[in-house]
Amino acid sequence: MEKVDRRSKYMLGGFLVIAYTLPFGIGIYTDNVFFTRQWLLDLTTVVLNGFMQGGVYAMFAVGLTMIFGVMRIINVAHGEMVMLGAYLSWASFFWMGFDPLAAMFFTLPIAFGLGWMIQKFLLNAVVGGPELTPLLMTFGLGLSMIYGVELIFTTDFRTIPYAPDSFQIAESIVVGRSRLISFGMALVISVGVFMFLKVHRLGKAIRATAQNADVAMVCGINIYNIYMITSGIAAALAVAGGALVSIQFGFNPETGIIYTLQAFAIIVLGGRGHFIGAMIGGVMLAVMESLISFMLPNGTALVEIAAYGLMIFVLLIRPQGLMGAKEL
Length: 328
Known about the structure:
The protein has 12 helices and 2 strands, in the order αααααββααααααα. A hairpin with a 2-residue loop joins β1 and β2. By secondary structure, it is an all-alpha fold. The longest helix has 35 residues, at 37-71. It has a single domain, classed as Orthogonal Bundle (ABC transporter involved in vitamin B12 uptake, BtuC), CATH 1.10.3470. The two termini are 23 Å apart.
């Protein structure tokens, strides 16, 4: 068994090497790769921006991996929660005049309460049951959120003009200020959640429930309260992710589907239920998207292929991901 596991690691490593070198090969073939000094500086900028965007991806993917790790529920409405966070930030900025990031002080508690109620009134009844039931339930929930947002905001794309200038790190290496702010906040939030799970008594209860819910219940832990708290934290992380992407990219009610796909690709790559794996997977996916966008003709329209392809091939080669399936 150990030999098979080692072989799958080598196969996954080989696939990732090919996946990251393929954009270079296609770029050389299509004359989009030059290896001049300016091109290398541009490549450095692209990779750095991708790394920072990966921090945001990883943060909202952590919420999805927490739900799966604790309850074994596949929440396909997670991307719609990210989309909802983007609209809450937009409404805070344009309707109430609040800074979209400062608005998280009241949007995140709202998101936590929403996640709590969804778990209490919908998902608690199906935890431990057939996997298809919560999947279909969250699928319907996601559709309801999309149609509800369309009813209020229409299907038009929205943007938030926030920190549009850039920060120059070195000669010809420039990072968007909004991306830098998003990465910094995502890092702080992710580290805060990690320390909460490792140090706080409630965080330890969440980890204990993820490892064995029956034993946790025997030890006096109210696992259904833990489920609701976990869903609340996951919803808050998703809404925070929506706030951070809303100041960088345009969005509409359908963009949640893309974020769901990205979150699934990240936790499949990093390892289901693995916190650090989700962080690594988020950075790897974002850097790959950046390379595809930079080197391939019409690459911006092809970045979704990175998430689809990554998820499919990792599932075929090593379903447990880079870090292996692990509890929180």
